[in-house]
Design goal:
2 domains, globular, 6-stranded parallel β-sheet, Rossmann fold, single chain, alpha/beta
């Protein structure tokens, strides 16, 4: 079998890879019947020479391979007829902005294996947003807040050499007033975000304290579905019931929007679930959130202020509270800054 690693073609560019050079070497050592090829790329985080050093063939065209691995959506014009592809297609939730992509996969007789749909026997995903997504998301949330209020200026995460440099940035520069940060999710993303918040010296508090007490220092609260979802008729519902069928439940997130300054979204969202808040609610004076770091990044729902995904070079934009339109980053005093 011939297996290929494609050059990422989505714009803005993505430097990530499905397999590192050493992982490629391990694959062909363990499975000698597999021939592995890497499509040449100038944007990949690993240089072509690093793959060649491990004995991996680097080529300009990848058409001769049977199975192709990528990271993000493959541009329609780059899809090769009849191949098997592995990548994050962002179609699993029937995202309307990728309808043409899934249609093109069908028309070109492509077998698409979406990483998002690979699960273990217990139902847990094999691949998904990992701890590093939460790490970068929380770091960028603090960077956004620092820039918005001219408190500090962190080095962008993608320009840091490694996690140690990220943590040094936090230790050396982050100094926060007594703000409140709400973090959704209980998986790997939220775990990564907690690592950053704790390294920044931000105290974790429980839901009751977060909602009802004032603190002299910055605090955060990590909440799950039982904290921000309710059932209008059943107060004793179990979260597994919600996961199986989220229809009929309501958002109970408003109590957090009136006390929080930063919202870090690290949850998994089912498109049958209620949204966290609405565009009408952000107009209200009691909506105190001024920075939203949407790590999950589902466009428009469940967080309506996520008008689009941002980019690595330009990770921020503002949303006008009155009309919900996008504005340049940090251009409006009362705008909500989105990462």
């Amino acid at each position: 079998m011939k297996v290929g690693i494609i050059r990422e073609g989505k714009v803005p560019e993505d430097k990530r890879v499905p397999f590192s050079p050493k992982q490629c070497r391990a694959i062909i050592d363990k499975y000698p019947d597999i021939e592995l090829f890497v499509q040449s790329s100038k944007i990949r985080c690993y240089a072509d020479e690093e793959y060649r050093y491990e004995g991996i063939s680097v080529c300009d065209k990848i058409d001769h391979c049977d199975v192709l691995f990528g990271v993000k959506e493959v541009p329609i014009e780059q899809l090769i007829n009849g191949k098997t592809y592995f990548y994050f297609s962002h179609t699993h939730k029937l995202q309307p902005y990728n309808q043409k992509l899934i249609r093109s996969n069908l028309e070109k007789n492509i077998c698409l294996i979406d990483y998002e749909c690979l699960v273990k026997p217990d139902g847990q995903r094999v691949l998904g947003f990992g701890g590093f997504a939460g790490i970068v998301g929380a770091y960028n949330a603090l960077m956004t807040y620092g820039k918005k209020y001219n408190l500090f200026d962190l080095k962008p995460a993608h320009k840091c050499k490694d996690l140690e440099e990220v943590k040094k940035q936090l230790s050396n520069y982050v100094s926060l007033p007594p703000i409140k940060i709400v973090l959704t999710g209980t998986g790997r993303v939220a775990g990564g975000a907690q690592e950053i918040l704790e390294h920044a010296g931000i105290q974790e508090v429980d839901v009751d304290g977060f909602l009802n007490l004032d603190y002299k220092n910055a605090v955060y609260c990590n909440i799950g579905v039982k904290d921000y979802i309710k059932h209008p008729e059943n107060n004793s519902w179990e979260k597994n019931d919600f996961f199986k069928d989220p229809k009929g439940y309501m958002s109970d997130f408003k109590k957090f929007t009136s006390v929080s300054d930063i919202f870090i979204a690290g949850h998994f969202w089912d498109n049958r679930s209620p949204v966290f808040f609405t565009m009408d609610q952000i107009k209200n004076d009691d909506f105190t959130i001024s920075v939203i770091a949407d790590v999950s990044c589902d466009i428009a729902e469940p967080i309506p202020t996520t008008l689009r995904s941002s980019t690595i070079p330009e990770p921020f934009y503002d949303v006008n509270r009155n009309d919900g339109t996008e504005k340049p980053a940090f251009s409006e005093k009362d705008g909500i800054s989105i990462m």
